[in-house]
Amino acid sequence: MRTSLLLPLSLLLACNTQPVAPTGGAGAGSVAELMKARGLSEADVNAALKTYTPSGKRDEYYLFASGGHGGNLIVIGVPSMRILKYVGVFTPEPWQGYGHDDQSKAVLKEGQRGGKDLSWGDMHHPALSETAGDYDGQFIFVNDKANPRVAVVSLKDFTTVQMVQSNLIQSEHGSTFVTPNTEYVIEASQYPAPLGGRYADISKFNEEYRGAAIFWKFDRQRGRIDPERSFAMELPPYMQDLADAGKLASDGWAFFNSFDTERAYGGNQEGRPALESGASQSDMDYMHVVNWRKAEQVVNQPGKSVVIAGMRVIPLKTSVAEGLLHFIPEPKSPHGVDVTPDGKEIVVGGKLDTHATVYSFEKIQALINAKKYDGTDPYGVPILNFKESIRGQCEIGLGPLHTQFDNQGYAYTSVFIESKVAKWSLKELKVVDKISTHYNIGHIAAAEGDTVSPDGKYLVAMNKWAIDRFNDVGPLLPQNFQLLDVSGPGQQLLYDMPLPLGEPHYAQMIKADKIKAIDLYSPAGHNSVTGQKDPFAVEGGKERVERRADGVHVFMTAVRSHFTPDTIRVKEGDVVHVHITNVEQAKDATHGFTIGSHNFN
Ligand code: K7E
Q1: Is pLDDT at 89 greater than 80 in this prediction?
Q2: 351, 478, 501, 576: which one has the fewest Cβ atoms less than 10 Å from its Cβ?
Q3: How far is the CA of 244 from the centre of ligand 1 (A)?
Q4: If DSSP codes are grouped into helix, strand and coil, which group holds residue 84?
């Protein structure tokens, strides 16, 4: 609850008449004097002018960053890098009452795994909803890698409205990625497991363990995923990694990386190589090329799918027979797979390879149509020739991971081992600039950088380490988001922003004017999760206490600055249901409700 503070006049006067202390550089003085006092170079001031946003001025972009193990979504203004909001998604968020009231508890319950409540999430890759391959600002989807789940956040009110999960898979990573009109939200498993959560001994890895890609059907009208109309494809046990949906030229297709075609599963105490080294024996893994548009038709044909854990699944054999799945070798331990803005090419970064490899969709199509294969994998999936599928490779450096794009024909790839962002010409496959980041860069997010029309301008490097960047806070340091200006020929570091929550894995940057958030819920009594008037809503003047079979129901209103009724009399042992409607219609006038020591907030 917010209340206005009534300060005695004498105190106000005292505040205003405090003498201004001449602190280091903060006093009056020319810019030159300020620079000298604070030890700033001209380059520093140039950077400061590009990010400083005076009080009352708005940011040009929103950055939606995953909160990692915090399980929440973080909304940041760019270029100021001011945090605007934490959206509770996979974990309760007491300030907003998320996970404390019945409505949001029901959302968290949708995300239970095996009937268990989960008090954390491992959020990786937010995906804004798209129309014709461009962000439309309506929804954002997020995934939980460790406890495979996908959540839907409405950007009308920045509220989590739904969570879906399937026991078909036991972990995931290739998620969330949306198809160009948000027909589907993609979620691919990472660590193979017997599908549906049954048991098989790990020595049966090749026969019994499988990966899967789920295509969650998004119903735009309802603003919800429809599990009934969703489907999945069985995949070999190759540890599928990141994914991306084709667009424009490659619309209807999806691409997944994989990094364990060796099918190693660890066992360093049982005479087998440790998982990491076992999975890095071969020089090539397989990019999975999936025709989801055709799969969507096949799954509806009689006898072409099976139901596992309530999910319609296209068996691997059927996918092969129907031509839904092809493999292309990709250099060792690939990580990011990113479709270019025109949809014509797919860029793959391999952790253990120094290149970004650029695949040509046209060449891939030609090979598929001619059924020109280099044989099949042990599961019968046809393999296309590597050299005949690519346009070329760009020598990036050590540990290229993820790629984003701008509007001038440049691609930007995070270079993990070198802690750099490489800016390179897509056309010429040549690096034009490299900038150091601090340190251990993972993901990057450029302004609308994975859409059909990227903006360029800004890029945020999401660094996992922050050594020597900020004041000491003990052994565990924050993450470091570094804002870069990429509008010029090179790249300029503008600002370091510490982010002291989970390790963020990806972010999406959208033009601010595309977000049309509501000012308040009107009329009052709106349920932010269902989007409907809540059956327990009460109008002002109709507040009451009712004794029913299941306990005492209090129908209460909140308006600045009181609750009605403000005294509730019940008998010891009564079950009390408190239904509170905020009938306040002034913007930003919210009301908290707490019952101390009873875990109600
Ligand atoms: Cu493996 Cu962090 Cu999900 Cu890239 S992601 S860094």
Answers
A1: yes
A2: 576
A3: 13
A4: strand
Give the residue, by CA position, lying nearest to ligand 1 atom 6: 442
- Could you tell me which of 150, 160, 337 has the C-alpha nearest to residue 242? 337
Ligand 1 near 505 CB (within 6 A):
yes
Query: Using 50, 70 and 90 to split pLDDT, how confident is the model at 20?
Result: very low
Task: Please report the pLDDT score of residue 280 as a whole number.
Answer: 82
The answer to whether residues 506 and 73 touch, using CB atoms and an 8 Å cutoff, is: no
Q: Which atom of ligand 1 is nearest to the CA of 336?
A: 4
Counting atoms of ligand 1 from 1, which one is nearest the CA of 416? 6
- CA atoms of 143 and 152, how far apart (whole Å): 9
Round to whole Å and give the CA distance between 322 and 304: 10
Per-residue pLDDT at 248: 98
Q: Is the peptide bond before 523 cis (omega within 30 degrees of 0)?
A: yes
* Integer Cα distance of 400 and 426 in angstroms: 15
Tokens of 384: 């296309």
Whether the CB of 442 sits within 6 Å of ligand 1: yes
Token readout for 495 is 């600002």
Query: How many angstroms does the Cα of residue 122 sit away from the middle of ligand 1?
Result: 11
Cα distance between residue 338 and residue 403, in whole Å: 6
C-alpha pair distances (Å), 581 with each of 154, 550, 589: 21, 21, 13
Q: What is the 3-state secondary structure (H, E, C) of 86-152?
A: EEECCCCEHHHCECCCHHHHHHHHHCCECCECCCCCCECCCEEEEECCEEEEEEEEEEECCCCEEEE
- Cα(5)–Cα(141) distance, integer angstroms: 39
Distance of alpha carbon 339 from alpha carbon 302, whole angstroms: 33
Per-position DSSP letters for 519-536, written without gaps between them: SS-SSS-B-TTTSSB-TT
Q: What is the pLDDT of residues 516-530, one digit of tens each?
A: 999 999 889 999 999
Nearest to 278 by CA among 335, 238, 240: 238
Convert the pLDDT of each residue in 466-486 to its tens digit: 999 999 999 999 999 999 999
Closest-CA residue, ligand 1 atom 2, reads 505
Class of residue 34 by CB neighbours under 10 A (exposed 0-12, middle 13-18, buried 19+): middle
The CA distance from 351 to 396, in Å, is 11
Rounded to the nearest integer, the mean pLDDT of the chain is: 93
> Which atom belonging to ligand 1 lies closest to the Cα atom of 506?
2
